[in-house]
Amino acid sequence: MLNQFPLNRFANEQTPFYYYDLELLEATLNNIKEYTNDYPFHVHYAVKANANDRILRTINAAGLGVDCVSGGEVAASINAGFESNKIVFAGVGKTDREINLALDANILCFNVESIPELEAINELAQQKGKIADIAFRVNPNVDAHTHKYITTGLSENKFGINLEQLADVLLYAKQLKNINVVGLHFHIGSQITILEPFKILCEKINELQEKVRSMGFNLKIINVGGGYGVDYDNPDENPIPDFKAYFDVFKNNLKLYDNQEVHFELGRAIVAQCGSLITRVTYVKKGTAKQFIITDAGMTDLIRPALYQAHHKIENITSTEKDTEVYDVVGPICESSDCFGENEVLPITKRGDLLALRTAGAYGEIMASRYNLRALPSIIYSK
Ligand SMILES: *Cc1c(COP(=O)(O)O)cnc(C)c1O
Fold first, then answer.
1. Which of 91, 122, 263, 354 is the most buried (most CB within 10 A)?
2. What's the predicted TM-score (pTM) here?
3. pLDDT for res 138
């Protein structure tokens, strides 16, 4: 379904552009609904992965909520039609202005990451005569040595509150008149493609819940964060992540008490596969040992390869050549990290061919910049 690019529509388009397969996005959302419907599970899409308005509207239409990390994302979500009671606001550095915006919008919950932030929310809520519902982001401290995928759930980083400090923080929050603690929040990392870390997270949460309940707290929301990964190598074989396996981990391992809800904040897993960056080959340059495909897309359009050494599958979608050659695929930006792939095996490629950089729906368009005074990539939707 994904590989059938509407080449007739692409022919005269200004490149580079993002192409979004909205049917695939809808199929992905339906799949998520199928495995969460009969459970007290609520998915809040992590807007930071892609804040494109059509994408947000499609996600809203499917009934999901949103997880925002800035006032701008809260505003974009409201603008795209999300109801305020489906908006969660996270982030280590919420400014007063952003907190006020969220208070005025009556969002569902603030995910709080420190005492000073808690105090700021309490004070600003008091000025408005409101009570802010909050969840504490906790570092579950899952062992990174056994699970290298986990990058943000350790105690020593800027995110969240350490396990050892949580009891004191909860007791302190209880005294604040304009704060209502409704939940605990966890997020252990990103692009996690094995399920074991999520299972360990469940076990940590179970332990923690016993402690918190023994302190007299009865929290409604357990937010397990996002981080489920996608198959960057085989987008056509795995266009939709295995959500059944993912949600089963929580169904089977997370112990819930009366009326508790589980909140999820998936970003990449929802939008990555529906997007491709389409770029035209500007030149094919033959060196002595290598040959280069120089594309009109660069790191300003898709920064993941330059920023994280990520790799997106590259396809020549217009070539009819049967023979292949080996190329380095590079962008036009004046930075040597502006490279999409080394030693890529592609059909013989010519100036003017179109390439697709697949699985680019998450952390693609949203991270585009105008460095080198380039235009931002344009957008084409499947419908
Ligand atoms: C980035 C982030 C997410 C989404 O991560 P994905 O890997 O895109 O699923 C969810 N929650 C928090 C707190 C985040 O920072």
1. 263
2. 0.95
3. 94
pLDDT per position as a tens digit, 287-329: 999 999 999 999 999 999 999 999 999 999 999 999 999 999 9
Pocket residues for ligand 1 (CB within 6 Å)?
46, 48-49, 67, 90, 187, 190, 225-228, 265-269, 362
Backbone φ and ψ for 164, nearest 5 degrees, come out as -65, -25
DSSP code of 178? T
**Distance between terminal CA atoms of the chain?**
14
22-36 vs 53-61: helix crossing angle, rounded to 10: 30
Both tokens of 67, joined, read 């997880």
Nearest atom in ligand 1 to 225's CA: 11
In angstroms, the CA 130 to CA 62 distance is: 30
Q: For 94-102, what is the mean pLDDT?
A: 98
Share above pLDDT 90 across residues of the chain, in percent, rounded to a whole number: 90
Is the peptide bond between 241 and the residue preceding it cis, with omega within 30 degrees of 0?
A: no
